[in-house]
Amino acid sequence: MAPLSLQLFPSLSPSLSLPSQASRLPVLLGGDTSSEAARSRLRSCQQRRNSGQWRSPGKRGRAPRREEQEWSRSCCWCRLLLLLLLAMPRALAACLFLLPLCARALALNVAAEDVKDRTEQLSQTSERSGNSTKISKELKEIVFVIQSQRNSFHLKKADDLKQSIFKQAAVLGKEMPTVLLIHQMDKHEGAWTILPLMHDFSVTYSRNSSWFFFCEEDTRIHLVKLLKILEGYDKSKEYFLGKALHDDESTIIHHYAFAENPTIFKFPDFAAGWALSIPLVKKLAKRLKNEPLKSDFTIDLKYEIALYIWEKGSGPHLTPVPEFCTEDFDSPNAAHCATTFANFLPLCGDPVKKTDIFVAVKTCRKFHGDRIPIVKQTWEKEAALIEYYSDYAESSIPTVDLGVPNTDRGHCGKTFAILERFLKHSPAATPWLVIVDDDTLISISRLQKFLSCYNPTEPVIIGERYGYGLGSGGYSYITGGGGMVFSRAAIQRLFASKCRCYSNDAPDDMVIGMCFSGLGIPITHSPLFHQARPMDYPKDYLSHQVPISFHKHWNVDPVKVYFTWLAPEQKDFQDGRKHVREDL
């Protein structure tokens, strides 16, 4: 039969005799094995334990962990038990009694520690859950409005942004925020101008929301940072938040307002996103109900919204928010930003071939000598298919006489004659027509890349969008100076209808807009087309663009403007990076 010590402690090797185990007790107990020594060692162990001064070997100079304290207590009892087993055989009965108590005490200590750890974990989980619930609640109070468009390319971009918002929200909480797409709200043509929607916004969302946040399709939003930014503003007050732009000089597109100091008036850069508090939305809705919009034309929406909110000084100014940015999302300057912007030229595959773009230049005899040479000196060589349409045939240019008398304004008869000629005389395989003025400056190479994102088999008309009478059922149109881009399918739809000019001098761009509105074909806006000169736009606004066109030779050197802003470069944005100009 095995010795009792081996029955109680099977881990002891049976090859070792009891005396040999006893000889190891000085190592286990750290000293003599006599009863008096053991009692002395036990008293020392207990005193050090009770005084809280236990120190594990090799760990001097720091407070003991709880595990070390528990282990020290267990070691004291187990050492005493082993001493009794080996040195006092007559005390075996007492050992048998103490052994389960020792094990039980150790198990209780371990269980107590486990309960404490679980309690701490539950507390931390509860705290995180509370924060998540708070974030989810705050997120639910924001109504996101994406300034989307009905064209298929833009629908895809808007949906991508919407899904990005939902994915971020899913991480933060269970409840999804409200995300609205402007193109789905156009009960009338003017939904894109925002202000006509204020009544619906107020009635539908003011009870459970605190903010409306507006952004473009290419805006990128960091939800956690956005929530933190909005928390810093009192939602019970009237706030108009955004990245501030201002004119550097008075400009025609803003009707030369604030001529004495154009920099004093701030308006938001839509690309960075902008926000209205619910009290301000409700105020605007009430005002619009009592005083309908008076302006006939919508030219620069971001400026006109700020002007309406300001209300000649009685309304709030725009509050600049540095965290609303137009930096690239991966820029080192965007680390603090709640919003960023994809500020590169759209490219959706191979650029459109030059032979797929037919360029029509509108001119007249009196401008053959000063404007046409500028076209030839700058961008004409980029175009593979180009014709100049005039009221006089001049072979040296050459120009084509359309048989339509020149008019001082409007040019509707001339433009419709160009559209008809394109359908009848241009190669049927040419999918795109671009109509420009003789003082338009345009980059054909950028237009090639840009058009790769649009389907020419769809009825498409693209350019800088203006509006007429949109507060009372008017229509949108592409302003002609920045260039009007038509798909062949759009022109075919136009001529299949009965919509035509009511006179040769009618405003061609507005009549075309009215016709397409009646056909239910949307006007597609791109901020890369410009009706005016570079100096007529804020520098910060142009800094995150890769412009396709500008307009007017007045008071500028058009050749310098072209080579500064529009001329092809060796790396003409093929890598999709932001275009930087030293003069900014």
UniProtKB/TrEMBL annotation:
Location within or outside the cell: Endomembrane system; Membrane
Q: How does it sit in the membrane?
A: Single-pass membrane protein; Single-pass type II membrane protein
Q: Name one GO cellular component term.
A: membrane
Q: Which GO terms describe its molecular function?
A: glycosyltransferase activity
Every Fringe-like glycosyltransferase domain range: 200-288, 351-562
| Originating organism | Podarcis lilfordi (Lilford's wall lizard)
What protein is this chain from? Beta-1,3-glucosyltransferase isoform X1
For the region Disordered, give the residue spans. 40-65
Is Transmembrane helix one of the keywords UniProt gives this record? yes
Principal location listed in the UniProt entry: membrane
Could you list this entry's UniProt keywords, alphabetically sorted. Answer: Glycosyltransferase, Membrane, Signal-anchor, Transferase, Transmembrane, Transmembrane helix
Indicate whether ATP-binding appears among the record's keywords.
Answer: no
Bilayer-crossing residues are none
**In terms of domain of life, where is this protein from?**
Eukaryota
Residue spans with biased composition (Polar residues)? Answer: 40-54
Question: Which family does the UniProt entry place this protein in?
Answer: Belongs to the glycosyltransferase 31 family.
